[in-house]
Structure formats: structure tokens, C-alpha cells
Amino acid sequence: MSIDTAPTVSATALDATSGAATRRDILHRLLMTLGPILAALVIAGCILLAVGVDPLAYYGYVLEKGLFSPLGIQQTLTRMAPLLFLAAGLIVAFRAGMWNLGGDGQFLLGAVTAAASAPVFVQLMPAWLALICSFLIAAVVAMIWSLVPALLRAYQGVNEIITTLMMTFLGTSLANVLVKLVFRDPGTTVPQTRTLPVEDRLPRLFDTTITSGLLLGLAAIIIVHLVMTRTAFGLKLRIVGANPRAAVHAGLGVPGLTIAVFAISAGLAGLAGAVDIIGVQGNVRADWNPAYGLAVIPAVFLARMNGFAAIGFVFLLSVLSIGGESAARRLGVPNHFTLVLVSIVLIVLALAEYIDHRYNQSRKA
Amino acid sequence: MTGLFSEVFLSALLFGAVTAALPLLLAGLGEQMSEKAGVLNIGIEGMMLAGAYLGFVGAFYSGSLWLGFLTGAAGGVAVALIMALLCVRIGLNQIVIGIALTLGLEGLTALLHHFQFSRSYPRLPAADATVIPLLSDIPVIGPAFFKHHLIVYLAVALVFGMGYLYRRTQLGLNLQAAGDKPAALDVAGIDVIKTRTIAVLTTGALAGLGGAYLANVGAGLFIPFITNGAGFLGIVLAMLARGRPVWVLFGALLFGVCLSLTTAMQVAGINIPTDVIQMLPFLAVMIMLVLFGRRASLPAALGIPYERGAR
């Protein structure tokens, strides 16, 4: 069986080895990414004009806050930490052909678990050990949350899109119930969990406000990328993704692998929640749901499930969301415009990839 | 407990259940058609929001609820047109485009609402009910099921219309084939792209109508993110219904009862956080999936764009 032809196997610019070709590939990739983004900005700008906002001022603020101001870029890099973990989890699932659309529920439960456990652990043990324990327990809770969809898919063949969506609705409500009833900080009037003191949170990098969670996130996504592309385990998962029936005939234990995929994917989503809480927020407020998962899913697709490309897209998402929040505040536009911008960027990028693909095909023919 | 289960309370509960179920029913029926034809329509949440916003705008400025339903359906179709163009005609990834459309419409409708209505939050007057004679005189059931807006009865009739369409008509069989074996449909001389486009546009119309009902009759106003996952519930209903419209109706009613129960318990002053009650419908579905999930089947070509001659 030839695995090399499986559609999920990556053949990206960054994996290539020869010098000159690589440079041209990277240039091409860059062009194919920046061009569509520019086009998307123009389209979104027309919407801004229509509602009477100066698009140039808006984008100026987005770039200033999201990319060029020292404080802004630090916030952008900090925002990347949870997104990278989420993207890493999705890469595992999507490469193995499983649609884990339940990232938001897993994320929130991981976040609540970390928020509830970290303040307790820091009183019992050294801070570094406490944080590690919180991370682990957050990952485990998220894994358990994915067990029902995993078992249903593995042994009953139930479509995981429905089950993970259901579990994400359930998880969001459960996270709220936990915050309001179980882990509520008695010292505050607004329902929220106990706040982890700043000195006990993940250390910041050097003299900046960037969380060291960024490094953890980068490590997670690179490890996931290497495991999926360079190891026997990753190959097995990709075979399951490319053709589950062939995988059965090749003697792979598909049910076991399915459960492993869900566990890894959900575990990473749980870690995303933990890194956001332990690194940045410090507590979970009731009804807090940043819904990162929904924006990361298309980004991972556009990155063709390549870890390195996903880092780029996550960076782009972070710039847009941090910059967009600031621009919206300054210009009196509701922050919802960021959603519109992200959506147009995603669609135009998908469209550009299609045009590029067609162009390459016609050149070959 | 006597207060909770009094006759008036019970019929109000059921009335609310029907009102809450209708958008889900329309979304589920729409999604079902897309899925039958092989398109996983994750953009349905965006279509509902477009329908809710434009439906409200139409009804608010014209003063006619029916015109509102029309503009709502048109809004859904407009979004579906983008989906059909990108995912059916040129075959882009349905999940990427679907999620992107949902995100975009969430943002766009919230943005437009901010500039138009966020100062005044206008409301529509309560919708006129069509009272069905005799049946509406039955205690409890009468006021609950037979005093709704005319469109509710039409939607229920549509369930049976859909059943007829899928079983007895050429178009119904074409839709089924477009999802199960598109290549065979193509060989039979039927345009797969056109068949799927019809399905996606119909989904848009139904989802838009559902959104418009939600805003105009259910709530009487438009607020950002008003659909609150109703489109995703529609996807779930369609998948659970295994291609049978009647099951979408039952599923929608089940969700409707749970949603209505949430409001009712708050009114009755029962001290359970709404989050717990909100979990009920999803819990019910998960239990159903655990018990009966094995038999859920989806069209073979679901989510795969059709390209003639491709392997």
C-alpha cells in the first residue's frame, strides 16, 4: 500500500530540502497568503465605508495595536498560546480524519478545571509542581469529556460531528454550572472562580508581558507536527484518516487509535484552556466563552494541517483579534467587526488556494 | 406543585415549546435536504442569522409580518448562494466555508444591529394567531397547539410535503442520488451541481424563514447572536432523523419542550440555574445517540465536492 499518495501527507515548502526551489516556494506561499489577505482587507474595508467608518484609520489601529506597538505585539503573542494548543489538537484529529468540532467545550472545561485546581495546589506544593498538576488535570478532564464521542465513533460508528457538537454545548453549560455552583469564589459578588495570584501564574518571558505559555504552545504544535509526519504512530493515524477500511485490513487497531486521537485532541484543547487561565486570565468568570475553537478550525484547514503553516495562521488570527479589539474601541465600532474581517480573510484565502491549484493544474496539463 | 402543573401553566408550556421548536424544525428540514444531496451545510447558523436580521428589518419597516418572512427567507437564500457558489460549484471545503460564513454573519448582523437598533431596541407587536375552530377549544391542548401564527401550520404541512418529495418525486430521488452516488446521477444525465445547488438554496430559504420566525414571532425583536446555536441544533436534528422529515418534527418538539421548560422554570421561580436546564435537550440527544446511534447513517458522499471525472 502506498501511503505517499494519501492526500493528508504534507508536502509543503517548509519540508522541502533543496535551496533555490525552497526559496521560490516560500516566496510563492508568502505571495499566496499576503495577496488574499490584502484583497480581504479591501472587501472588509468596503463594509466599513458602508457603515461610515474610515477603513484606513481602522486598519491603521489594527496594525498599530496588533503588530507594531510593543505592548500590542506582546498581547498578540500572548493570545497565540491557547490558539496554538487548540490548533495542535485539531491537527491530530483532522489528519486522522476525525472531526473534533467540540474544541470549545473541551477548552472551557480544561479552563475551569485549571482555575479550580491551581489555587488549591499552590498552597500544597511548590508552584512549578502545582502548575504542572493543574495542566495535567485539565488535560485529563478534557480527555474524559471526549470519551463519549470517541467510544461512540470507535465502536458504534456514530458520526462524531454531531456528538462533539452536542458535547460542546453540554460542556459550555457544565462549565458555567461549575463556576456558579461548585467553584465559586465566596469573596466576590460576580460569579467567578478563585483568582490565581499573579506571582503564581506562568512566568512571563524576560521583561515582557508575553506569557511563557507561548513557548509551550509552540512546542506542542511542533511536536504534534513531527509526530504526525515523522513517526510510525503518526503514520498509523494518517492511514486511518486516509482510508479507515484500508487501515482495518492493514491490521491497525482502528478503535484504539480512534480513542487515542480523541484523547490527544481533547487533551490539547484542555491544555489550551489551562494555559489561558494559568498564564493570562487567572480565573474563569461565569459565561466566559471566547469561542476560539470556531475560528481556529478553518485556519487549521487553510494551513493544510501543517503545524508550521498553522503557526502563521494563528499569528494572523491573533493580530486581527487583538488589533481589532483596540481599533473597535477607538473608533466606536462594535468588536463584532473582527468576526466579519476574519470570515472574509478565511473565505478569500480558501478561494485563492483554489485558484492557485487550478493554475498549477492547467500549467502541468 | 399544583401551581406548576395547572392547566394554564401546562398549555403555556406547550405553546412555548411549539414556538421554540419551529425555527429548529425549519432549520432541520433545510439541513436535511442539503445533507441528502451531499452537502454538509455548517453555514446554516449564518443563514438563520441573516434571515433573523433581514426578516426583522423587513417586518419592522413594512409593518407586515409576511413581508418579514419573505425578506428573511431571501436573506437566507443570499447566504446560501455564496455557499452554493463556493462549495458546490467550485468545490471548496464545506467546513471551512460553512464556519467562515457563520462567523461572518454573526459579526455582520451584530454590526448592522448596532448602527440601526442598539439605541432604541424596537419591538414588533405580538403576532396575530390563527385560531383553528373547534380544535382550539380542547382544554390544554387547544390553546397550546391550535392558536399559533399561520406559518406554524404551514411548516408542519411542509414536513409531510418533504416526505412526499423524497419518496414519490423525481427531484427527491435525484437529491438522494446526489448524496449517495453523485457519479451515477451524472451518468443518468442529471446535473449533480444543479441538484445540489437547488438543495443548498432551499436550505437557505428554510433557515432564513426559521430565523425570521425566531426574531419576529418568537422574540418580537432582533438582538445579536439571537439564534444561539439553533442552526447547529438543526444539523444535529437532520443527522438524527436519518433522512425522514417526520423525525425532524419529533426531534424539534423534544428540543422545544426543553427550551420552553427553561423559561417556564424561571417563571415558576424554581431555583435551578438555567445552565442546568439548558443542558437537558443536549443530554437527551446524547442519550438517544448512545442508545440508537448505531443505526444513524449518512449519505456516502456527504461533504465531498463533486467533480466530474475525478477518481
| Biggest sheet features of chain B | 2 strands, antiparallel
What is the CATH architecture term of chain B? Orthogonal Bundle
Mean pLDDT across the residues of chain A is 85
Give helix and strand order of chain A, one letter per element, not per position: HHHHHHHHHHHHHH
Spatial ordering of strands, largest sheet of chain B: 1-2
Structural class of chain B: mainly alpha
Number of domains of chain B: 1
Portion of residues in helices of chain A? over 70%
Rg of Cα set of chain A = 21 Å
How far apart are the first and last residues' alpha carbons of chain A, in Å?
27 Å
The total of beta strands of chain B comes to 2
Q: What percent of residues of chain B adopt helix (DSSP H or I)? A: over 70%
Strand content of chain B: under 5%
Secondary-structure-based class of chain A equals: mainly alpha
Cα distance, first to last residue of chain B? 64 Å
CATH topology-level fold name of chain B = ABC transporter involved in vitamin B12 uptake, BtuC
Number of discrete helical segments of chain B: 12
Descriptors for this entry?
heterodimer; A: 365 residues; mainly alpha; 14 helices; 0% strand; globular; disordered N terminus; B: 311 residues; ABC transporter involved in vitamin B12 uptake, BtuC; two-stranded antiparallel ribbon; 12 helices
Descriptive account of the structure:
Chain A: This is ABC transporter permease. The complex is a heterodimer of chains A (365) and B (311). Helices cover 75% and strands 0% of the residues of chain A. In chain A, helix 4 packs parallel to helix 7 and helix 6 runs antiparallel to helix 7. The longest helix of chain A has 32 residues. Chain A starts with 18 loop residues before the first helix and ends with a helix. Chain B has one domain: ABC transporter involved in vitamin B12 uptake, BtuC, CATH 1.10.3470. Chain B is built from twelve helices and two strands; from the N terminus they run H-H-H-H-E-H-E-H-H-H-H-H-H-H. In chain B, helix 1 packs antiparallel against helix 9, helix 1 packs antiparallel against helix 11 and helix 2 crosses helix 10. The model of chain B has no long low-confidence stretch (mean pLDDT 86).
